[in-house]
Each structure stands twice: as C-alpha cells, then as structure tokens.
Amino acid sequence: MYKFVKEELNKIIEDELNSVQKIAILGLANAGKTSLVKTILYEFEALMVLAPTKGVDRSDISFLGRQLVIWDFGGQERYRNNYLRQPQKYFRGIKYLYYIIDVQESAKIRQSMAYFLKSLEIAYQFNPNLKIYLFFHKYDTKYEDKSRLIRNEQEFIQGTLHTIQSLGITPSIFHTSIYNPFSIISSFAQPLLRNPNLYETLCRTIKAFCLDNQLNFGILFVNDFEIGNYYASPEALKKINQSLIQIYQKIYIDGSLQGNYAKTTESLQINTTKFDISVGSAKFSFYFTVGIDLTKSLSERERLSEIIEIFTDKLKLILRNSEIIRLGVLRTEDIK
C-alpha cells in the first residue's frame, strides 16, 4: 500500500514539474509591462531602449522546475481591441493574470480600469480559478507627489472592487519600480510559490537571523527569482543594487558562480552561499546572500560566514516542508 502511494506521489511530483503554465501580462501602452518582463529576465541593460510590444511577445522560463510561459500583451489600442475580439486565441489557458497600472498617469486610470475589467471577465470565463495580481508600477521613490500615486491606486481599486468581489476573486497587490529591480523580481515570484505563507515565513526567518547577527540584509534566490528578504533600511537596497545584479549575472547568465562567493564593496562584504534541494527527480539550487559590515573585524566576519552556512540548513527545512505539504506527502504518514 505504501509503495503504491509513493508511486502516486512521484507521479504527482513529475506532473507538477513538467506542467506548462501561462502568465499573461496586460496593461495600457507605456504602463511598463515590457520593462517589467525585461527586469524579470535580468536584461537590465535593455531597460532604457525598449520598443513598444507589437502584438504579443512570448518568453519561456523555469521556476522550481515548473515551465512557465509569459505572454507580454501589447498595450496599444489596436492590439487591445484585437485581443478582446479573439478571446479564444489570447485568453484561453491563462493561469496567472498580471495587470500593470502606471500609477503616475492619472489621466489614464479610468481607461486602465475599463481594460482590466474586460480582460478579467473574459479570462475568468476560460478559467474560474484564475489568479489575479495587480502591479502598481512606477511607484518611484524619487517621485515628488507621493499623494498622487496613492490617489491613483485607490481610484483603481475602488473602481474595480465590485466586479472583483462578484467573481469571488481576491487579487494580490504589489508596488514596483524599475529603479528598484528587485521589487519587480520579488513581486513576480511570490505568487509562483503557490504557498501564500511561504514568502512571509522565509522573510520573517531571514529578518530574525539578520537582526541577531547585525547583518545589513539577507536575500534568498532561486531560478533567477528572489523568494525571501530582509533589508535593514530602504537605503541598504539602493547601495547594493548594482552589486547584486553583478552577482546574479554570475549565477544565472554566465554560470560562473558554482559554489560560495564573496564580493566586497566600499562598506560591505557580500557573501553568497549556495545550497541544493531535491524534489522528486529534480534538484534546485538556492542562493542566500547577506551583507556583512566591513567595520566588523576579519575574525568576526569569518565567524559570521560559518554561521551563515549553518543557517541555510534552517532555510532548507522550511523549503522542504513547504514543498512536502504542497504535494501531499504528509498524508502517507496516516497510511498503514
């Protein structure tokens, strides 16, 4: 009996790992959809020279062994009308709908609301289990009139709330900016974890560890995506943004980072520790990065490096347990 359950479980795992899931990214022209996708794919250098999307651009990525296809829908009116006229072609099979709102563009909030509601109603007809995520984009820290951003966000939410509630959908809301690329990477990855509590658990665990050891930040990455973090201050992220990009280019683009890695900036030693987790027949590599203040002595920094490696065992346990629970492994304990 146990052998049968184990075989069924392995089949579930393989099905999960091999399934292809469709992510649709929609919004008006110039809302920032393509820059968001480029950021997700680590094409940072292309952000300032992007051309408008014509029709639909498709990108294929892998996240924790699941194959995902991203459809970046062009936002110009002629393209939007074409999508709505051919819903079978464009909206069928959408698992996740990421809708991008330019929160700085007050004049287009109502137009964006109307397009979102039409897209939502059509996509919902094809998949009542559709997951909705609202990205209030261009939430830039340098933007002078912060109250305007808040008003535009509230107007959009209030104008779409009735329809969303009538469909029984609870969307998740994120605030993103290309000036903070990791806000995009983090927001994009959270829904794909499937376990809504996992991201918060990882963040709380990393925060406690960083506070206990007086670390400037801690970030957990997998498959190009950040899945947990803590920053001592908003300024901490700004100072290390470029350094992090260089580190993850080594990991994910040129593949030159195979083991642990340390990089020194003017004020920080940035340590990256790699660990692996196996699920079914697949193995996933995780990277935990922390910032150690250079005012600490060399011996203290070496001690912290050892502690960090030990701490990754705790992260492993959290990740393993969440994956086990999601795939139903714990049910086998009750079978005689």
| Radius of gyration computed on alpha carbons | 21 Å
The largest sheet, given as strand count, sense and whether it forms a barrel, is: 6 strands, mixed
Indicate the structural class: alpha/beta
User: Could you give the order of the helices and strands?
Assistant: HEHEEHHEHEHEHHEEHEEEH
Question: Can you describe this structure?
Answer:
- It is a single chain.
- By secondary structure, the protein is of the alpha/beta class.
- It has 10 helices and 11 strands.
- The strands form 2 sheets. It has a 6-stranded mixed beta sheet with strand order 2-3-1-4-5-6, with helices on both faces. A 5-stranded antiparallel beta sheet has the order 8-7-11-10-9, with helices on both faces.
- It is globular, with a radius of gyration of 21 Å.
Secondary-structure blueprint of this entry?
Layout: H1 2-18, E1 20-26, H2 33-40, E2 56-63, E3 66-73, H3 77-85, H4 87-90, E4 94-102, H5 109-126, E5 131-137, H6 146-166, E6 172-176, H7 181-192, H8 196-212, E7 217-222, E8 225-231, H9 234-253, E9 261-264, E10 268-279, E11 282-293, H10 298-327
Parallel strand pairs: 1-3, 1-4, 4-5, 5-6
Antiparallel strand pairs: 2-3, 7-8, 7-11, 9-10, 10-11
Helix pairs in contact: 5-6, 8-10
For the structure shown, list the relevant keywords.
alpha/beta, 336 residues, disordered C terminus, globular, 46% helix
Please outline what is shown here:
The chain is of the alpha/beta class and 336 residues long. It is 46% helix and 25% strand. It is built from 10 helices and 11 strands.
